[in-house]
Write a structure and sequence with these properties.
Elements: H1 3-6, H2 31-45, E1 52-56, E2 71-74, H3 80-90, E3 95-101, H4 102-108, H5 110-119, E4 124-129, H6 165-172, E5 176-181, H7 185-197, E6 202-207, E7 225-226, H8 235-243, E8 249-255, H9 271-276
Parallel strand pairs: 1-2, 1-3, 3-4, 4-6, 5-6, 7-8
Antiparallel strand pairs: 5-8
């Protein structure tokens, strides 16, 4: 353990990682539990706040960076992962967390998601999946069931099969894949600890009910259960488990150690040398 942490008179708690800004999420939103789980995981790992960065995109869940006392970057819609990759490339010493929603991460950010999985940089990505666009008032997202017919833009349903986030992550090359439920924040925190410790790209699908636009999701607490099998390092076995599941089983599905991509930070050239390249 770091000597700085041993000498601390006051033990670190999850509250030390929260800011003074009050969340504006709707009462009952699962994202509150993700905020608490991040704090609990970081406190368990005793990570100093200045050694952690949280990068987010746009949406209800992406507001989470402002509610922490960590270094944060609230980026553009769907662009959290490339921002985080750039930060990790320049500052490999930082623990870099990325957070967003199913729309932010799998729709406009879908291309960045699959390439982040295959690149396998040492990042931890949490998608708070409520199967709806909450901030823009209830449109269907990439994980919304085809027959969900309550959105104003899709009153008869989308008619399009939803993404399976864990399956997509596995196919694209993520080396740590888990599914958690915000109704069990302690288990979510435990999975987060394992994800942060994992060397490589770790993906967590956090089932996060939306009480405002998807009130029926409050029944998820009666549907979720733990995966019957232990974590596997075999991608074929992981694929079988994911494809045969209804999306309600929880736990670390797949974990495998492969080479981590960490590009070297570019050398800093004097400004005059850079300017000389553009002189006519």
């Amino acid at each position: 353990m770091d000597s700085r942490r041993q000498s601390s008179a006051k033990p670190i708690t999850h509250k030390d990682y929260k800011s003074d800004i009050k969340p504006v999420w709707c009462p009952g939103c699962g994202d509150f539990a993700v905020l608490n789980a991040i704090g609990k995981a970081l406190a368990f790992l005793e990570l100093p706040r200045e050694e952690v960065a949280l990068v987010t995109g746009i949406g209800c869940s992406s507001r989470i960076a402002a509610y922490t006392s960590l270094y944060g970057f609230h980026g553009l819609h769907g662009r959290a992962l490339p921002l985080a990759a750039g930060l990790k490339a320049a500052r490999s010493d930082l623990t870099v967390l990325v957070a967003g929603g199913d729309g932010d991460g799998l729709s406009i950010g879908g291309n960045h998601f699959i390439h982040a999985c295959r690149r396998n940089m040492d990042l931890t990505y949490i998608i708070m999946d409520n199967e709806v666009y909450g901030m823009t008032k209830g449109q269907a997202s990439p994980t919304t069931a085809a027959d969900w017919a309550q959105g104003k833009l899709t009153p008869r349903g989308t008619g399009i099969r939803p993404f399976q986030p864990a399956g997509l992550a596995l196919t694209a090359g993520a080396t740590f894949i888990a599914r958690a439920f915000t109704g069990d924040p302690n288990e979510l925190a435990r999975i987060l600890v394992e994800a942060i410790r994992h060397p490589g790209f770790a993906f967590i699908q956090a089932l996060s009910p939306c009480p405002t636009f998807r009130p029926e999701q409050m029944g998820w607490k009666r549907q979720v259960r733990a995966f019957a099998d232990e974590t596997t390092a075999d991608p074929l076995e992981a694929a079988r488990r994911i494809q045969s599941d209804d999306g309600m089983s929880l736990g670390i599905i797949y974990r495998r150690e492969l080479p981590v991509f960490q590009p070297g930070a570019p050398a800093r050239e004097p400004a005059a040398a850079i300017e000389s390249e553009f002189r006519l």
